[in-house]
Amino acid sequence: MTSYSNSRPVAFACVALLIVSIMYSIPGAQAWGNGGYSSNHQDPDYGSHDWIADMALLIQIRDVTFLSITYHSEYLLGTEAPDNPEYIGDQSYHHVYYHSDGTLQDDISAKRATAMYESSLIYLSQNNLESAAFTIGAMTHYIADVGVFGHTMGSSTDWGEEIHHSDYESAVESMIPNLDIPPDIPLGDKSAYQATIDLARDVTFGKGDIKPNIWMDSNYLWTNREFEASAMASLYATVEAVAAAINHLLIEAGFSTGDNNQPIPPTDTDEQPMPTPHNPQPPRLLNATLNERGILISWLPPLDDGGFPISSYLIYRSTDRIHFSQVAILNGNVLNWTDSEIQEGITYIYKMQARNFIGLSDFSVALVVTVPKSGGDSLEDISNAGDQSTVLQVAIPSAAVAICLGGLFFWRMRKAAR
Q1: What are phi and psi of 97, to 5 degrees?
Q2: What are phi and psi of 249, to 5 degrees?
Q3: What confidence tens digit (pLDDT) does each residue in 263-297 have?
């Protein structure tokens, strides 16, 4: 290791603990095993994720001593961070989905791998090898997960929801102590994003000994030689993908090959551009209803979270459409809020923003709600008001949809896709 590149903006640089502390935990299916969550951070529990990460180091031709020896514990802790709610714990984002026509449907795990890649590159440019080891370990997790066929299937995909997931991973986990070093795995050079989507494509549609995801789920039987061969081929392909991303990172960071100066395979000419983490889009589909507690506002998450989980939502309120005050900051997994500080006969205008690790989104569309005056319908019985129910208006009427719920009318606004 001789030099480091300072070409990336320092805006992405941040202590690893700060990165993971703002990411909320979402329940979801785990992938390759972690060997449990490590109680001793100096001696992390060892599982298939750790094995994959270590095997990827053995293939490298550049100096990875900081990963394999000096900060090996941090590297292995990083491999469990995406599953561990004490660190990142964003298990619902560990997948890549393809449509049956071969087009990408959802590349969220590739985006997560990219975010960890970017952070690792900044740490390396600062010679902060300890933090880099942690985020590189986390990067390997997001790539490796899509080597499991269950992480390329789901109820929203053309392939349907998988049946065999945890049992498959548990079986591979039990084999780890007896697995040999993968044979003759070539060292590639791919961005974290490309390595992830390429691995997911091979696991989805099949390649060589790797059977398609549907075949693996339908023919789950370890005594079936084709099934076992496909499982091992998937595991070795996962090591290859992780190794290629680490190699790409080391090259970009300026690591030399040292005495073991071997030629590096050229980057794929059809490589897709690697997305850069960015600010999220605003919350969408804001709705409002009146109930006995006040005005209940609900929304859906942004279509684009910028490559990081949404850490918080900010709600602003105005009564004159000009001067807005912040009235709430909510965790990123909360999708509704009740404004109980309201008065009869007043019209309230609400706007929202989403925040991720990079920063804030633009403002959402405005939501305009008028509270009925006393003497008419009360907040308690407004939902049964029949034809006299209050109309909740959205500031921009185009593309709005009128929805009737038990006699209560409100307007929903869909912001045009950006």
Answers
A1: -115, 135
A2: -65, -45
A3: 334 444 455 565 678 899 999 888 887 778 889 99
Residue 307, domain CATH: 2.60.40.10
Hey, CA dihedral for 84, 355, 119, 70, is it positive or negative? negative
**CATH label of the domain that carries residue 221:** 1.10.575.10
Q: Is residue 37 part of a domain?
A: no
* Burial class of residue 134 in the structure, from the number of CB atoms within 10 Å of its CB (0-12 exposed, 13-18 middle, 19+ buried): buried
Q: Which segments of the chain have a pLDDT < 70?
A: 1-44, 258-275, 374-418
Q: Are residues 98 and 220 in the same domain?
A: yes
On whether both 249 and 288 belong to a single domain, the answer is no
- The secondary structure of the chain in percent helix, strand, coil, rounded to multiples of 5, reads 35, 20, 50
Q: In 3D, which of 145, 92, 137 has the Cα closest to residue 117?
A: 137
Judge if pTM exceeds 0.85: no
Is the separation of the CB atoms in 233 and 176 below 8 Å?
no
On whether both 226 and 288 belong to a single domain, the answer is no
Q: Which helix (H) or strand (E) holds 393?
A: strand 391-394
Structure tokens at 172: 């591979």
Decide the pairing of beta strands 391-394 and 408-413.
parallel
